[in-house]
Amino acid sequence: xxxxxxxxxxxxxxxxxxxxxxxxxxxxxxxxxxxxxxxxxxxxxxxxxxxxxxxxxxxxxxxxxxxxxxxxxx
Length: 74
Hints:
The chain is mostly helical. The chain has helices at about 5-25, 45-70. The chain starts with a helix and ends in a 6-residue tail after the last helix.
């Protein structure tokens, strides 16, 4: 696998892991809801984005180790 393809696969995998983690964390800890709009008053998005970044980094590292050890041969 060439270096450019390898890098794009790794970047794409991180993006997928990040969005997956963020969407899993969005409903957690919503707290008080605005009665008019139904939206949470304090969704804590910066905290959830930071947590999604940490979770995605751990998932990406596990993915990289699996690929580097050759479990997926092309």
